[in-house]
Design a protein that fits this description.
The chain is mainly α. It has helices spanning 2-16, 20-39, 44-65, 70-124, 131-141, 143-165, 168-187, 189-198, 205-243, 248-258, 264-281, 285-309, 318-338, 340-353, 357-363. Helix 10 packs antiparallel against helix 11.
């Protein structure tokens, strides 16, 4: 029995790890995941700077194509991006804080409306629900007390979160250090890339094959996701404002970021959109118009915008996408969710490019 197990294990390693480069790549791959898992939160500013550099580098290249000096192009792009980011934050953050404060204050009223809607269900659907059953639901939920508890609990949570996230060190890192890293990565990206390649093994045919396949796809994915967030969020904000839905800015931000989680995000964000509309209008035409408009935005996003932005994306099965979101999101949080599809594509590219004796023997 032990001899059979030894032969199986030996055949496996001989088939997939007989290539020296495959062994090195496997070690580097494991080392990369261990470092990210261990120091992911510490390295988050670096990831942020690299992502922003990815987004801005095509603009620098475009300016250089018009014979603008490299340093001047970097300064121009960096200054323009910084100005737009500062103005956007100054406009968005006060509006979001105001709407969050309103939402916290409205929770008791919303709970009361929800209780009234539940109490009215037996009149609308007498053949399905009885008054006694609904009264039991209301009594067991104790909605009024829940609303009062939430209204007192949420401000403390918000205050605690703001105090935690807005620590002096965190603000300095993301407001000063990250922009500086972005500037120097854009300015010296060719030298940094040469330095990085110099620490890799000289024989890296397999690594080059994977890098060539992934580089353009990851860059396109990051840029495409940022554009998708802006378009979907802006379209939702304009639509909700025109329809008169409360908390339009807050909901549009949630909808915009929901595109980071394929399939799951849109489903989850439907709940607050439906809840706000229900508390504002009840079951009426306005609610149905909001839901139809939201559904239309999701249909256009999935069937028009995504194919246009990600036409070169590798075809991944929906189950593989959902599993990758769950795994990488559970390991690395927000960044794991953001990079779930590129990481799944990377794993697929490595599996496809991985050398094996069986494939080489079949070719020979």
């Amino acid at each position: 029995m032990n001899l059979k197990i030894y032969r199986v294990v030996s055949d496996f390693f001989h088939r997939y790890f007989s290539d020296e480069e495959a062994v090195i790549l496997f070690i580097l791959f494991i080392l990369f995941f261990v470092i990210i898992y261990t120091f992911g939160s510490t390295l988050a500013p670096l990831f942020t700077a690299v992502i922003l550099s990815y987004l801005l580098s095509p603009l620098v290249d475009k300016l250089q194509s018009f014979r603008v000096p490299h340093t001047l192009a970097v300064i121009g792009v960096f200054a323009s991006f910084s100005g737009v980011a500062i103005v956007s934050l100054l406009v968005m953050i006060p509006a979001l804080v105001k709407q969050v404060s309103r939402l916290v204050g409205d929770i008791p009223r919303m709970m009361g409306i929800f209780q009234d809607q539940l109490a009215a269900l037996p009149l609308r659907y007498p053949e399905l629900l009885s008054s006694e059953l609904v009264d039991q639901w209301i009594g067991s939920l104790e909605l009024s007390q829940v609303g009062q508890q939430l209204s007192g609990w949420l401000p403390s949570v918000v205050t605690f979160s703001l105090n935690t996230l807005s620590s002096v060190i965190g603000v300095l890192v993301y407001v000063i250090v990250v922009p500086l890293m972005v500037f120097f990565i854009l300015k010296d990206r060719e030298q940094l890339w040469l330095k990085f390649k110099s620490i890799l093994p000289e024989q890296r045919r397999l690594m080059n094959q994977i890098a060539l396949e992934m580089n353009q796809q990851i860059a396109n994915y990051i840029r495409g996701k940022v554009i998708e967030i802006l378009i979907v969020g802006s379209a939702s904000f304009v639509t909700f404002e025109l329809l008169g839905l409360d908390y339009a800015a807050l909901l549009s931000v949630l909808i915009g970021f929901s595109v980071l989680i394929p399939y799951i995000g849109a489903t989850v964000v439907t709940i607050p959109v439906f809840a706000i509309g229900l508390f504002q209008w009840g079951f009426g035409p306005q609610l149905y118009w909001v839901l139809m408009a939201y559904l239309l935005i999701q249909i256009l996003d999935g069937n028009v915008l995504v194919p246009l932005l990600f036409s070169e994306a590798v075809n991944l099965h929906p189950v593989a996408i959902i599993v990758s979101v769950l795994i990488f999101g559970g390991i690395w949080g927000f960044w794991g969710v953001f990079f779930a599809i590129p990481l799944a594509t990377l794993v697929k590219a490595i599996i496809n490019a991985w050398p094996s004796n069986s494939s080489r023997e079949s070719v020979e």
